[in-house]
Amino acid sequence: MIELDARLRAVRDHAREAAEDLRARALSIDAEPHAMEQHLDSPAFAMIRESALPEEYRSASPAPAPALAGGDDPAGRGSCLESMVSVLELFRGDVGALLACPSPALAGVFVALLGDEEQKKRFYERVRTGRTWAFFAMTEPGRGSDATAMETRLERDGQGGWLLHGTKRYIGNGARGGIGVVFARTGPSPLHIRAALVELPASGWQAEPLDMVGLRGAALSEIRLDGVPVPGGMLLGEHLPATRRGIWGAVQTFNNMRMQVAAAAVGTAQAMAEYIARHRPGTPGTRRAVARAEAARSLVYEAAARIDRNPDRGYLSSAAKLGATRMAVETAHWAAAALGPAGLLDHPLLEKWTRDVCAFEFMDGTGNIQRLHVARGYQSGDADGR
Ligand SMILES: Cc1cc2nc3c(=O)[nH]c(=O)nc-3n(C[C@H](O)[C@H](O)[C@H](O)COP(=O)(O)OP(=O)(O)OC[C@H]3O[C@@H](n4cnc5c(N)ncnc54)[C@H](O)[C@@H]3O)c2cc1C
Protein backbone atom coordinates (compact mmCIF):
# COMPACT_ATOMS: atom_id res chain seq x y z
CA MET A 1 0.00 0.00 0.00
CA ILE A 2 1.27 3.48 -0.92
CA GLU A 3 1.86 5.75 2.08
CA LEU A 4 1.79 9.45 1.19
CA ASP A 5 4.92 11.31 2.30
CA ALA A 6 4.81 14.87 3.68
CA ARG A 7 5.04 16.45 0.23
CA LEU A 8 2.19 14.36 -1.21
CA ARG A 9 0.06 15.06 1.86
CA ALA A 10 0.62 18.77 1.25
CA VAL A 11 -0.43 18.30 -2.40
CA ARG A 12 -3.58 16.53 -1.22
CA ASP A 13 -4.44 19.21 1.34
CA HIS A 14 -3.95 21.99 -1.21
CA ALA A 15 -6.34 20.22 -3.60
CA ARG A 16 -8.88 19.77 -0.80
CA GLU A 17 -9.32 23.53 -0.51
CA ALA A 18 -10.01 23.82 -4.24
CA ALA A 19 -12.36 20.83 -4.02
CA GLU A 20 -14.57 22.73 -1.58
CA ASP A 21 -14.86 25.53 -4.12
CA LEU A 22 -15.84 23.02 -6.84
CA ARG A 23 -18.41 21.41 -4.52
CA ALA A 24 -19.99 24.79 -3.82
CA ARG A 25 -20.49 25.34 -7.58
CA ALA A 26 -21.57 21.80 -8.47
CA LEU A 27 -25.36 22.17 -8.49
CA SER A 28 -25.30 25.52 -10.22
CA ILE A 29 -23.10 24.18 -13.05
CA ASP A 30 -25.23 21.05 -13.32
CA ALA A 31 -28.39 23.15 -13.63
CA GLU A 32 -26.95 25.59 -16.17
CA PRO A 33 -23.77 24.21 -17.74
CA HIS A 34 -23.66 26.97 -20.34
CA ALA A 35 -23.98 29.87 -17.87
CA MET A 36 -20.32 29.77 -16.86
CA GLU A 37 -19.42 33.45 -16.56
CA GLN A 38 -19.97 33.53 -12.78
CA HIS A 39 -17.51 30.64 -12.26
CA LEU A 40 -14.62 31.63 -14.50
CA ASP A 41 -12.61 33.52 -11.89
CA SER A 42 -13.00 30.89 -9.19
CA PRO A 43 -9.85 29.89 -7.25
CA ALA A 44 -10.38 26.23 -8.13
CA PHE A 45 -10.57 26.94 -11.86
CA ALA A 46 -7.37 29.01 -11.68
CA MET A 47 -5.58 26.18 -9.89
CA ILE A 48 -6.80 23.52 -12.35
CA ARG A 49 -5.85 25.61 -15.38
CA GLU A 50 -2.41 26.60 -14.08
CA SER A 51 -1.55 23.05 -13.11
CA ALA A 52 -2.28 21.83 -16.64
CA LEU A 53 -0.20 24.47 -18.41
CA PRO A 54 3.47 24.01 -19.33
CA GLU A 55 5.71 26.13 -17.15
CA GLU A 56 6.35 28.89 -19.68
CA TYR A 57 2.63 29.63 -20.03
CA ARG A 58 1.77 29.72 -16.33
CA SER A 59 1.15 32.94 -14.48
CA ALA A 60 1.33 31.41 -10.99
CA SER A 61 4.67 30.86 -9.33
CA PRO A 62 5.65 28.51 -7.83
CA ALA A 63 3.75 25.99 -9.97
CA PRO A 64 0.75 24.35 -8.31
CA ALA A 65 0.63 20.59 -7.91
CA PRO A 66 -0.21 18.82 -11.15
CA ALA A 67 -3.93 18.17 -11.38
CA LEU A 68 -4.58 17.15 -14.94
CA ALA A 69 -1.46 15.41 -16.16
CA GLY A 70 -0.14 11.89 -16.06
CA GLY A 71 3.20 10.32 -15.21
CA ASP A 72 4.73 10.48 -18.66
CA ASP A 73 3.28 13.91 -19.03
CA PRO A 74 4.96 15.49 -22.05
CA ALA A 75 4.78 18.94 -20.51
CA GLY A 76 6.84 17.64 -17.59
CA ARG A 77 4.46 18.45 -14.76
CA GLY A 78 5.45 15.81 -12.28
CA SER A 79 4.68 12.20 -11.49
CA CYS A 80 1.50 10.27 -12.16
CA LEU A 81 1.15 9.53 -8.43
CA GLU A 82 1.37 13.21 -7.54
CA SER A 83 -1.19 14.00 -10.22
CA MET A 84 -3.56 11.32 -8.88
CA VAL A 85 -3.24 12.50 -5.28
CA SER A 86 -4.23 15.99 -6.38
CA VAL A 87 -6.92 15.21 -8.89
CA LEU A 88 -8.65 12.59 -6.77
CA GLU A 89 -9.31 15.21 -4.11
CA LEU A 90 -10.60 17.65 -6.74
CA PHE A 91 -12.93 15.00 -8.17
CA ARG A 92 -14.17 14.28 -4.66
CA GLY A 93 -15.30 17.92 -4.70
CA ASP A 94 -17.24 17.43 -7.93
CA VAL A 95 -16.31 15.90 -11.28
CA GLY A 96 -18.86 17.85 -13.34
CA ALA A 97 -17.63 21.20 -11.99
CA LEU A 98 -14.02 20.25 -12.72
CA LEU A 99 -14.84 19.24 -16.31
CA ALA A 100 -16.56 22.60 -16.82
CA CYS A 101 -13.29 24.43 -16.18
CA PRO A 102 -11.69 26.09 -19.21
CA SER A 103 -8.30 24.37 -19.30
CA PRO A 104 -6.02 22.49 -21.75
CA ALA A 105 -7.61 19.16 -20.69
CA LEU A 106 -7.36 16.21 -23.10
CA ALA A 107 -6.42 18.41 -26.06
CA GLY A 108 -3.52 19.84 -24.04
CA VAL A 109 -1.96 16.40 -23.54
CA PHE A 110 -2.20 15.75 -27.29
CA VAL A 111 -0.83 19.16 -28.31
CA ALA A 112 2.07 18.77 -25.87
CA LEU A 113 2.89 15.41 -27.48
CA LEU A 114 2.43 16.22 -31.16
CA GLY A 115 2.46 20.00 -31.54
CA ASP A 116 5.38 21.99 -32.93
CA GLU A 117 6.41 25.21 -31.17
CA GLU A 118 4.11 27.45 -33.24
CA GLN A 119 1.10 25.16 -32.65
CA LYS A 120 1.78 24.94 -28.92
CA LYS A 121 2.04 28.72 -28.71
CA ARG A 122 -1.31 29.18 -30.49
CA PHE A 123 -3.00 26.63 -28.28
CA TYR A 124 -1.61 27.63 -24.89
CA GLU A 125 -1.90 31.38 -25.48
CA ARG A 126 -5.64 30.86 -25.96
CA VAL A 127 -6.31 28.51 -23.04
CA ARG A 128 -4.14 30.32 -20.50
CA THR A 129 -6.66 33.21 -20.50
CA GLY A 130 -9.14 31.10 -18.53
CA ARG A 131 -11.83 32.15 -21.00
CA THR A 132 -11.26 29.49 -23.66
CA TRP A 133 -12.36 25.85 -23.50
CA ALA A 134 -10.45 23.23 -25.43
CA PHE A 135 -12.07 20.33 -27.31
CA PHE A 136 -10.74 16.94 -28.41
CA ALA A 137 -12.97 15.76 -31.25
CA MET A 138 -12.52 12.10 -32.06
CA THR A 139 -15.84 10.22 -31.59
CA GLU A 140 -18.43 10.18 -34.37
CA PRO A 141 -22.03 8.97 -34.55
CA GLY A 142 -21.64 5.16 -34.70
CA ARG A 143 -17.81 5.40 -34.56
CA GLY A 144 -16.74 5.36 -30.91
CA SER A 145 -14.62 2.46 -29.65
CA ASP A 146 -13.22 1.80 -33.12
CA ALA A 147 -11.81 5.22 -33.88
CA THR A 148 -9.89 3.89 -36.88
CA ALA A 149 -13.25 3.59 -38.68
CA MET A 150 -13.87 7.33 -38.45
CA GLU A 151 -15.35 8.99 -41.53
CA THR A 152 -14.51 12.66 -41.08
CA ARG A 153 -12.27 13.74 -43.97
CA LEU A 154 -9.45 16.19 -44.47
CA GLU A 155 -9.49 17.24 -48.12
CA ARG A 156 -6.86 19.40 -49.79
CA ASP A 157 -8.07 22.92 -50.59
CA GLY A 158 -5.69 23.31 -53.55
CA GLN A 159 -3.81 26.15 -51.84
CA GLY A 160 -1.61 24.25 -49.41
CA GLY A 161 -4.29 23.89 -46.76
CA TRP A 162 -7.12 21.49 -45.91
CA LEU A 163 -10.90 21.43 -45.48
CA LEU A 164 -12.65 19.37 -42.79
CA HIS A 165 -15.88 17.53 -43.62
CA GLY A 166 -17.86 15.26 -41.29
CA THR A 167 -19.67 15.02 -37.96
CA LYS A 168 -18.33 14.54 -34.43
CA ARG A 169 -20.50 13.60 -31.46
CA TYR A 170 -20.12 13.43 -27.64
CA ILE A 171 -17.35 16.03 -27.72
CA GLY A 172 -16.65 17.67 -24.35
CA ASN A 173 -16.83 21.47 -24.59
CA GLY A 174 -17.59 21.23 -28.31
CA ALA A 175 -20.17 24.01 -28.23
CA ARG A 176 -18.24 26.08 -25.68
CA GLY A 177 -14.83 25.63 -27.23
CA GLY A 178 -12.43 28.13 -28.69
CA ILE A 179 -9.57 25.91 -29.80
CA GLY A 180 -8.90 22.19 -30.01
CA VAL A 181 -8.01 19.09 -31.91
CA VAL A 182 -10.17 17.44 -34.61
CA PHE A 183 -9.31 13.98 -35.94
CA ALA A 184 -9.98 13.13 -39.59
CA ARG A 185 -8.62 10.95 -42.35
CA THR A 186 -6.69 11.93 -45.46
CA GLY A 187 -6.94 8.42 -46.93
CA PRO A 188 -8.09 4.82 -46.26
CA SER A 189 -5.52 3.40 -43.79
CA PRO A 190 -5.21 4.06 -40.02
CA LEU A 191 -1.96 5.92 -40.79
CA HIS A 192 -4.01 8.39 -42.80
CA ILE A 193 -5.78 9.53 -39.61
CA ARG A 194 -4.45 12.94 -38.67
CA ALA A 195 -5.28 15.59 -36.12
CA ALA A 196 -5.81 19.24 -37.00
CA LEU A 197 -5.52 22.16 -34.63
CA VAL A 198 -8.72 24.15 -35.16
CA GLU A 199 -9.18 27.65 -33.84
CA LEU A 200 -12.64 29.23 -33.63
CA PRO A 201 -14.50 31.04 -34.98
CA ALA A 202 -14.15 29.20 -38.28
CA SER A 203 -16.42 29.02 -41.31
CA GLY A 204 -18.28 25.73 -41.78
CA TRP A 205 -18.18 24.93 -38.01
CA GLN A 206 -21.51 24.31 -36.32
CA ALA A 207 -21.67 22.95 -32.76
CA GLU A 208 -24.72 22.24 -30.64
CA PRO A 209 -24.85 21.07 -27.02
CA LEU A 210 -26.39 17.64 -26.43
CA ASP A 211 -29.02 17.16 -23.76
CA MET A 212 -27.18 15.28 -21.00
CA VAL A 213 -28.42 13.37 -17.95
CA GLY A 214 -25.13 13.05 -16.04
CA LEU A 215 -21.85 14.96 -15.95
CA ARG A 216 -23.63 17.94 -17.48
CA GLY A 217 -20.62 20.14 -16.72
CA ALA A 218 -18.72 18.32 -19.49
CA ALA A 219 -21.07 19.95 -22.03
CA LEU A 220 -20.97 17.16 -24.62
CA SER A 221 -21.78 18.45 -28.07
CA GLU A 222 -22.31 17.48 -31.66
CA ILE A 223 -20.12 19.25 -34.21
CA ARG A 224 -20.87 19.48 -37.92
CA LEU A 225 -17.88 20.25 -40.11
CA ASP A 226 -18.82 21.60 -43.50
CA GLY A 227 -15.55 22.57 -45.15
CA VAL A 228 -13.87 24.01 -42.05
CA PRO A 229 -10.56 25.49 -43.28
CA VAL A 230 -7.32 24.18 -41.75
CA PRO A 231 -4.19 26.12 -42.75
CA GLY A 232 -1.31 23.92 -43.96
CA GLY A 233 0.73 24.48 -40.81
CA MET A 234 -2.04 23.34 -38.47
CA LEU A 235 -1.83 19.56 -38.94
CA LEU A 236 -0.27 18.22 -35.75
CA GLY A 237 2.72 15.87 -35.85
CA GLU A 238 3.96 16.95 -39.30
CA HIS A 239 7.53 16.96 -37.94
CA LEU A 240 7.18 13.35 -36.66
CA PRO A 241 7.42 9.98 -38.48
CA ALA A 242 4.15 8.89 -40.15
CA THR A 243 3.56 6.23 -37.47
CA ARG A 244 3.59 8.84 -34.70
CA ARG A 245 1.12 11.39 -36.00
CA GLY A 246 -2.57 10.64 -35.46
CA ILE A 247 -3.77 7.45 -33.76
CA TRP A 248 -0.46 6.91 -31.93
CA GLY A 249 -0.83 10.32 -30.26
CA ALA A 250 -4.46 9.56 -29.38
CA VAL A 251 -3.51 6.24 -27.75
CA GLN A 252 -0.78 7.97 -25.71
CA THR A 253 -3.26 10.65 -24.68
CA PHE A 254 -5.86 8.08 -23.58
CA ASN A 255 -3.24 6.11 -21.61
CA ASN A 256 -2.35 9.35 -19.91
CA MET A 257 -5.93 10.41 -19.15
CA ARG A 258 -7.52 7.06 -18.29
CA MET A 259 -6.20 7.27 -14.77
CA GLN A 260 -8.10 10.54 -14.45
CA VAL A 261 -11.38 8.71 -15.11
CA ALA A 262 -10.48 6.08 -12.52
CA ALA A 263 -9.78 8.91 -10.06
CA ALA A 264 -13.09 10.56 -11.00
CA ALA A 265 -14.97 7.35 -10.17
CA VAL A 266 -13.15 6.92 -6.86
CA GLY A 267 -13.60 10.57 -5.88
CA THR A 268 -17.34 10.46 -6.60
CA ALA A 269 -17.78 7.16 -4.71
CA GLN A 270 -15.96 8.60 -1.70
CA ALA A 271 -18.11 11.71 -1.82
CA MET A 272 -21.30 9.60 -1.89
CA ALA A 273 -20.21 7.29 0.94
CA GLU A 274 -19.23 10.27 3.11
CA TYR A 275 -22.49 12.00 2.28
CA ILE A 276 -24.55 9.04 3.50
CA ALA A 277 -22.37 8.70 6.62
CA ARG A 278 -23.09 12.35 7.47
CA HIS A 279 -26.79 12.57 6.50
CA ARG A 280 -27.94 9.03 7.35
CA PRO A 281 -25.63 7.89 10.16
CA GLY A 282 -25.93 4.21 10.97
CA THR A 283 -27.04 3.18 7.46
CA PRO A 284 -26.16 -0.51 6.95
CA GLY A 285 -23.34 -0.92 4.46
CA THR A 286 -21.70 2.45 5.15
CA ARG A 287 -18.44 0.99 6.44
CA ARG A 288 -18.30 -1.35 3.46
CA ALA A 289 -18.94 1.49 0.99
CA VAL A 290 -16.22 3.63 2.59
CA ALA A 291 -13.80 0.68 2.63
CA ARG A 292 -14.45 -0.16 -1.04
CA ALA A 293 -13.80 3.44 -2.07
CA GLU A 294 -10.60 3.43 0.02
CA ALA A 295 -9.49 0.19 -1.60
CA ALA A 296 -10.15 1.62 -5.07
CA ARG A 297 -8.17 4.70 -4.14
CA SER A 298 -5.26 2.48 -3.09
CA LEU A 299 -5.49 0.70 -6.45
CA VAL A 300 -5.36 4.03 -8.30
CA TYR A 301 -2.32 5.14 -6.27
CA GLU A 302 -0.64 1.78 -6.82
CA ALA A 303 -1.28 1.85 -10.57
CA ALA A 304 0.02 5.45 -10.71
CA ALA A 305 3.22 4.54 -8.86
CA ARG A 306 3.79 1.59 -11.21
CA ILE A 307 3.19 3.81 -14.25
CA ASP A 308 5.81 6.21 -12.85
CA ARG A 309 8.23 3.27 -12.82
CA ASN A 310 7.24 2.13 -16.32
CA PRO A 311 5.08 4.57 -18.34
CA ASP A 312 4.50 2.02 -21.13
CA ARG A 313 2.31 -0.20 -18.95
CA GLY A 314 -0.98 1.23 -20.17
CA TYR A 315 -3.00 -1.79 -19.06
CA LEU A 316 -2.63 -0.78 -15.39
CA SER A 317 -4.69 2.33 -15.96
CA SER A 318 -7.30 0.12 -17.66
CA ALA A 319 -7.46 -2.18 -14.60
CA ALA A 320 -7.83 0.81 -12.27
CA LYS A 321 -10.54 2.39 -14.43
CA LEU A 322 -12.46 -0.87 -14.76
CA GLY A 323 -12.56 -1.58 -11.02
CA ALA A 324 -13.22 2.01 -9.96
CA THR A 325 -16.05 2.57 -12.44
CA ARG A 326 -17.96 -0.54 -11.36
CA MET A 327 -17.46 0.30 -7.68
CA ALA A 328 -18.75 3.87 -8.18
CA VAL A 329 -21.94 2.70 -9.92
CA GLU A 330 -22.62 0.14 -7.16
CA THR A 331 -21.99 2.79 -4.51
CA ALA A 332 -24.51 5.06 -6.22
CA HIS A 333 -27.17 2.30 -6.16
CA TRP A 334 -26.49 1.68 -2.48
CA ALA A 335 -26.59 5.39 -1.63
CA ALA A 336 -29.89 5.93 -3.45
CA ALA A 337 -31.42 2.93 -1.66
CA ALA A 338 -30.12 4.21 1.69
CA LEU A 339 -32.14 7.41 1.32
CA GLY A 340 -35.34 5.48 0.62
CA PRO A 341 -38.21 6.28 -1.73
CA ALA A 342 -38.10 9.89 -2.98
CA GLY A 343 -35.02 10.48 -0.81
CA LEU A 344 -33.02 11.79 -3.75
CA LEU A 345 -35.48 14.67 -4.13
CA ASP A 346 -34.34 16.01 -0.77
CA HIS A 347 -30.64 15.48 -1.53
CA PRO A 348 -29.94 17.08 -4.91
CA LEU A 349 -26.14 16.76 -4.65
CA LEU A 350 -26.36 13.02 -4.11
CA GLU A 351 -29.00 12.79 -6.83
CA LYS A 352 -26.57 14.53 -9.20
CA TRP A 353 -23.73 12.14 -8.34
CA THR A 354 -25.97 9.11 -8.99
CA ARG A 355 -26.46 10.49 -12.52
CA ASP A 356 -22.79 11.41 -13.00
CA VAL A 357 -21.36 7.94 -12.27
CA CYS A 358 -23.03 6.43 -15.35
CA ALA A 359 -20.79 8.48 -17.66
CA PHE A 360 -17.47 7.03 -16.44
CA GLU A 361 -18.11 3.77 -18.29
CA PHE A 362 -17.78 5.57 -21.64
CA MET A 363 -14.96 8.04 -21.00
CA ASP A 364 -11.55 7.11 -22.43
CA GLY A 365 -12.77 3.70 -23.55
CA THR A 366 -15.70 1.52 -22.43
CA GLY A 367 -15.44 -1.34 -19.93
CA ASN A 368 -15.13 -3.96 -22.68
CA ILE A 369 -12.24 -2.06 -24.28
CA GLN A 370 -10.50 -1.85 -20.87
CA ARG A 371 -11.01 -5.63 -20.46
CA LEU A 372 -9.26 -6.17 -23.77
CA HIS A 373 -6.32 -3.98 -22.59
CA VAL A 374 -6.05 -5.87 -19.31
CA ALA A 375 -6.18 -9.25 -21.08
CA ARG A 376 -3.40 -8.17 -23.42
CA GLY A 377 -1.35 -7.03 -20.40
CA TYR A 378 -1.69 -10.48 -18.83
CA GLN A 379 -0.94 -12.26 -22.08
CA SER A 380 2.23 -10.23 -22.57
CA GLY A 381 3.39 -11.30 -19.09
CA ASP A 382 3.51 -7.69 -17.93
CA ALA A 383 0.99 -8.06 -15.16
CA ASP A 384 3.23 -9.81 -12.64
CA GLY A 385 6.11 -7.34 -12.89
CA ARG A 386 6.66 -4.46 -10.50
C1 LIG B 1 -18.75 12.22 -20.31
C2 LIG B 1 -18.20 11.84 -21.65
C3 LIG B 1 -17.22 12.63 -22.23
C4 LIG B 1 -16.73 12.33 -23.50
N1 LIG B 1 -15.82 13.18 -24.07
C5 LIG B 1 -15.38 12.94 -25.33
C6 LIG B 1 -14.50 13.87 -25.96
O1 LIG B 1 -14.15 14.92 -25.39
N2 LIG B 1 -14.06 13.58 -27.22
C7 LIG B 1 -14.44 12.45 -27.89
O2 LIG B 1 -13.99 12.27 -29.01
N3 LIG B 1 -15.31 11.56 -27.32
C8 LIG B 1 -15.78 11.78 -26.06
N4 LIG B 1 -16.67 10.91 -25.47
C9 LIG B 1 -17.17 9.76 -26.24
C10 LIG B 1 -16.54 8.45 -25.79
O3 LIG B 1 -15.17 8.45 -26.13
C11 LIG B 1 -17.32 7.32 -26.47
O4 LIG B 1 -18.60 7.30 -25.86
C12 LIG B 1 -16.63 5.98 -26.29
O5 LIG B 1 -15.47 5.94 -27.07
C13 LIG B 1 -17.54 4.82 -26.71
O6 LIG B 1 -18.01 5.01 -27.99
P1 LIG B 1 -19.58 4.85 -28.29
O7 LIG B 1 -20.34 5.68 -27.33
O8 LIG B 1 -19.79 5.10 -29.75
O9 LIG B 1 -19.89 3.33 -27.96
P2 LIG B 1 -19.55 2.06 -28.87
O10 LIG B 1 -18.14 2.07 -29.29
O11 LIG B 1 -20.60 1.99 -29.95
O12 LIG B 1 -19.79 0.90 -27.83
C14 LIG B 1 -21.09 0.40 -27.55
C15 LIG B 1 -20.92 -0.90 -26.74
O13 LIG B 1 -20.20 -1.86 -27.54
C16 LIG B 1 -19.05 -2.35 -26.80
N5 LIG B 1 -17.95 -2.60 -27.75
C17 LIG B 1 -17.47 -1.78 -28.72
N6 LIG B 1 -16.41 -2.35 -29.33
C18 LIG B 1 -16.20 -3.56 -28.73
C19 LIG B 1 -15.25 -4.62 -28.91
N7 LIG B 1 -14.29 -4.54 -29.84
N8 LIG B 1 -15.33 -5.70 -28.10
C20 LIG B 1 -16.29 -5.79 -27.15
N9 LIG B 1 -17.24 -4.81 -26.95
C21 LIG B 1 -17.19 -3.72 -27.71
C22 LIG B 1 -18.70 -1.22 -25.85
O14 LIG B 1 -17.99 -1.71 -24.71
C23 LIG B 1 -20.08 -0.69 -25.45
O15 LIG B 1 -20.62 -1.48 -24.45
C24 LIG B 1 -17.18 11.19 -24.20
C25 LIG B 1 -18.16 10.37 -23.61
C26 LIG B 1 -18.67 10.69 -22.36
C27 LIG B 1 -19.73 9.81 -21.76
Could you characterize the architecture of this molecule?
The chain has 386 residues and is α+β, with helices and mostly antiparallel strands. It has helices at 6-31, 43-52, 80-93, 95-99, 105-114, 117-127, 247-279, 286-309, 315-339, 343-346, 348-356, 367-379, and strands at 134-137, 153-156, 162-172, 179-185, 193-199, 205-209, 220-230. The longest helix has 33 residues, at 247-279. The protein is globular, with a radius of gyration of 20 Å. The model is unreliable at 69-77 (pLDDT under 50). Bound molecules: flavin-adenine dinucleotide (FAD). Residues 106, 136-139, 144-145, 170-172, 215, 218, 220, 359, 362-363, 366-369 line the site of flavin-adenine dinucleotide (FAD). Flavin-adenine dinucleotide (FAD) is lined by residues 106, 136-139, 144-145, 170-172, 215, 218, 220, 359, 362-363, 366-369.
Total domain units: 3
The DSSP helix count reads: 12
CATH topology of the largest domain: Butyryl-CoA Dehydrogenase, subunit A, domain 3
Rg value = 20 Å
The termini sit apart by 13 Å
Strand proportion, as a percent range, falls in 5-15%
Question: Which helices and strands appear, and what pairs or packs with what?
Answer:
Blueprint: H1 6-31, H2 43-52, H3 80-93, H4 95-99, H5 105-114, H6 117-127, E1 134-137, E2 153-156, E3 162-172, E4 179-185, E5 193-199, E6 205-209, E7 220-230, H7 247-279, H8 286-309, H9 315-339, H10 343-346, H11 348-356, H12 367-379
Parallel strand pairs: 1-4
Antiparallel strand pairs: 2-3, 3-7, 4-5, 6-7
This protein binds flavin-adenine dinucleotide.
